[in-house]
């Protein structure tokens, strides 16, 4: 059947147009979410002196903020499922602004933990998850590029926020700096305003489909054979039945309501579980080398400014690597098997760390920083693209919430464990060996498990194709009708792994969001 | 009369015993060496008062500078040991300089101590005005070698060029630290050219001073605009004080509010513009579609399709291709 290029009338998502403006909004939101906790450390020395606390106590502020940002994922997902991305991001921006302004009046470290750590962390999590979700809704063909560009916000904002924070600190002290940072975080509301919701008629949560059919909750992708959508149909037809659907909600139990808002059936999804396990393992060794790079350089005899410049090199390379990886992942060859690229990036990351202790002198460390920047950017750019690829945009918002709350633990524990290794052996090499080994294992695990997963899906797809051919022969003229679909779905519902659709070799140029 | 004699005798006895005690104290004081210095310090047995001495070994071609931290007035013997001189002369001429000026009558001829070395030394009585640079200079053949000893109180080396910023009504902590423990610390506020001592006990509402061996902290409470300026912390040693300064800037609360309000206004304007643009654009293009998401939503595709999620789009296309 030959290769078909992307049709000009577009796939289901717009894939361009206002989508690029949404990418810019997501760029801002994601940039603030990832870069802000790290950039705050510039104020720590003075706060430490003013409050009379030790460095480890003040470092908890950043850790709490990052932990709450990750742990707030499910709440964020529930809200996005219910209200869409725009209101959640605007709320998140306002929360962050309020958090920083109240923190500037603080007189004790506990006050900072509450305001900056908890409220600020929740605000940032309301920025992160919706931004990722809306990219999946707006893009399908060009989604890897969109993801790469949006994730590039993190290094760009880190490079900008660090000197800006230093300037604010010199000019206004830490209290004035916090007030002004609160105002800057309000710009996330601008980013949220850019995220126009899509009127595609798709029920945005499992619940709406369930309510409309009156079926039990937590059944993924239940077919709706009586609904034929045209572009003129009112958007969100399923939502119109929401008022009637609300009455049954009260009769449901707590667990049912939770699974109504958050798709817990994902834990039965083979690809999702593989992704989750690989990522949780990977995050133990992901952030620690970056945190310890500058101290390691100083330990090897590099002076302070050169050690700081290593991090700048890393950030700049990272900035370029993320959109570059997005472009690479968008090519025909890679798009079908993007999980392999991700596993390769993770494994290569591990190899890079294992070789780091061999680097000698300043230029050896620069070479390591460049390699690290490239692979770090690759992993970050593909992180959520792979998840979208596995579960599809409909379930992505629930998936990202579940993934972030489970990743919260290794993200928090990784750097202190690495620090403990350094203290125990008084040698940074063991830190790099540990991180390298962990990531290499994670990469190999992902590679082999995804290979197995692809084979399983291929097999299931072949059996499905055979049954569909039989069905097609009888329904040749019914192209637009949904009945053969229902047959396919009915055939496929029993297999939990078949929540994904197949990507066949026939339509190479078409990008799929689910791969067999 | 007898009683008066007894009183007189007891008085004389007590006077004598106290005088003896004072003498003892004097002797103990002279024997006590309390300075700690960088190089070796020991009591040389041949002198009858305590000194500390320092030696430096000079090889050809190196200019050597040694820093010595002096905490109290004392006598110090500085000695330079010279070795490895070519042509092995029997004696060399040397003299001492203080702060670049030759000390009178310090020139002397130095003879070899053992086969290779010359030792050139001198005892200096260091009081508060005697701190400075002392150099031993010796010449042989046509060359001159020099070793310099820098005698000074311990210095606080932290860079303090950036001011500490705080706000009216807030409190701020200023700190100083030094390597050697001083007798005490003192804080001054600088008014133009003069220093005003800060007395925390006299003014506990505004100042709190914490003294902790090598560290001192001054807490200034209830800040006002007049509290801004230069603060000087002084580590008091017996011989002299070592000083460092820190600048304090006090801002009013309005200062950071100006950029805050500016940025907030910018955000509100941008959000309003974006939403208005959406509404205006939507009402211009779109007539019939009243959407659940409100009038501001982005339309999706033009193909009719049947799917409960977006994932079946491909199947439709595939089916289209098949046909």
TrEMBL record, chain A:
Localization recorded for this chain is:
Cell membrane
Q: How does it sit in the membrane?
A: Multi-pass membrane protein
| Domain of life according to the entry | Eukaryota
What the entry lists under InterPro entries is as follows: MCT, MFS, MFS_dom, MFS_trans_sf, Proton-linked_MCT
- Biased composition (Basic and acidic residues) is annotated at 465-475
Where does the Major facilitator superfamily (MFS) profile domain lie? 1-454
Keywords from the UniProt entry: Cell membrane, Membrane, Symport, Transmembrane, Transmembrane helix, Transport
Extract the Pfam families matched here. MFS_1 (PF07690)
Q: Report the transmembrane regions from the record.
A: 17-37, 58-80, 100-124, 145-164, 176-195, 272-293, 340-360, 366-384, 396-418, 430-452
Q: Listed GO cellular component terms?
A: basolateral plasma membrane
Has the keyword Transport been applied to this entry? yes
Q: What's a single GO MF annotation on this record?
A: symporter activity
Region (Disordered) residue ranges read: 222-250, 465-516
What does the sequence similarity comment in the record state about its family?
A: Belongs to the major facilitator superfamily. Monocarboxylate porter (TC 2.A.1.13) family.
Name this polypeptide is given: Major facilitator superfamily (MFS) profile domain-containing protein
Q: Which organism is it from?
A: Electrophorus voltai
Lineage at the top is: Eukaryota, Metazoa, Chordata, Craniata, Vertebrata
TrEMBL record, chain B:
Q: Which InterPro entries match?
A: Ig-like_dom, Ig-like_dom_sf, Ig-like_fold, Ig_I-set, Ig_sub
Q: What biological-process GO terms show up in the record? A: axon guidance; dendrite self-avoidance; homophilic cell adhesion via plasma membrane adhesion molecules
**Record carries keyword Membrane:** yes
Q: Where is the Ig-like domain?
A: 45-148, 154-252
Looking up SUPFAM superfamilies in the UniProt record yields:
Immunoglobulin
Q: Source organism's superkingdom? A: Eukaryota
Q: This chain belongs to which protein, by name? A: Ig-like domain-containing protein
Membrane-crossing ranges are 259-277
Organism of derivation: Electrophorus voltai
